[in-house]
Queue: 2 jobs
Job 1
Amino acid sequence: MMKKTSNNMLILGVEGALRHVMEEYKLFFRSSERFKRFESYILGPSYTEAKIDVGILSALCKLPAPNFDQVVRTLLIEMVNGGSTTYDDISKFGNLDALWRMIQKSYGYGFAEQSLEKLAILLLCTHLSHSINSPMPKEWQTYAHCFRRSDEPTI
């Protein structure tokens, strides 16, 4: 499998320092369809761990371009419609820890439980807290107070 990872890194132009990241995604890269979608994003020549993570997540969401906000949107829409196929694919072929690290960094999600439902509530309450001119109900403040979007782009 090491040879396959090296070959993928060579094709994509990923530097050796990121081998550990590529190794994490060896199941993802076993599919030529997923590999081609990832390759089509042209994330190089300066790959970073974050770029690879966002590229993998975007490919698993079948997005036309890598975009972390669209990854989250895709997951939330699927959840609202009663599905979890994409989330399950991320669990199997991607990296849920990377997903939730980026959610925490991008949206200020600080809850111990990794829950798309809680994320949706956090986003809604945060939006409401910025939109209404009266105090938020006390029960909602837990969700709205911890929002701080990172100024650093995810890709």
Job 2
Amino acid sequence: MQNDEPFKLFTSIEDARKMVLEQLPFHPDFIKIWYIVSPDSIEASAKKYEPIVRAIVEESHKNNLKVAVHATERITAQLAVESGCDYLVHDVEDEVVSDNFIKLLKTKNVILCPTLIAAAGYDNTFGQKAITLFTI
């Protein structure tokens, strides 16, 4: 990515495929997608960007790269799995996953990482503010 950008918003399939190709000279172990959607229209937003996610997965697999996806809503996780991702790097946070979702993961051979997080004070991290997590 240019200018050391850690994240890039893709609004077209062409740009998404191009990004994968631009990463190849760096010999990445995998491509990671941050599948972040609008909180005001989660399902519509997830479906809008699904073709871009699918294109990244297809281009990555064509170049022998696995794809990891940050998808914390059930719909984004489901669409990522249906699009062919290899890993979900976090749990679904917005609902209890169904048996059908678990079957989908197993059928598609997708690994889900049940991420353990320390959320208290996370927003203060970059401000380097000291916080008290608990008292005795």
